[in-house]
Amino acid sequence: KMEEFLNLTQLKTSLKETILLDYYTAGFWWAKEMNFSLIQLSGFMDLLNFALENLSGKHMTLGDNLKELERAMVAGIGETESEEEGDQNLFSIEQAKAIIDYLVTSLFKHYKAYEYLFHGRREEPVISNE
Fold this sequence. Notes:
Elements: H1 2-5, H2 15-33, H3 38-56, H4 62-74, E1 77-78, E2 91-92, H5 93-106, H6 111-119
Parallel strand pairs: 1-2
Helix pairs in contact: 2-3, 3-4
């Protein structure tokens, strides 16, 4: 289902698409194990996409991407999860710390590899009778 949602059409022949499917699927299952609500799960997947899009589409450096992620997360973090007090925040501080740890482990520790995936020059494969 994730393959369909992400519109990955060349999964069997594209290493890039395979890596993207793994990235999003692993993130989805991690968020499910964290018992995030549907809204939190959606917000978390948006953060995954945000960080990856900053790298792939905007060519952001690791430092710039971390700064942008910090800005995005500050908007969705609250001291409490109480809706009675009118708190509109998406994640608690503990959840936000866990999300940051997850992103560090899943994306930022491997930033150079992801940069190469999106921006590295690759030679076209040569297919011949030989």
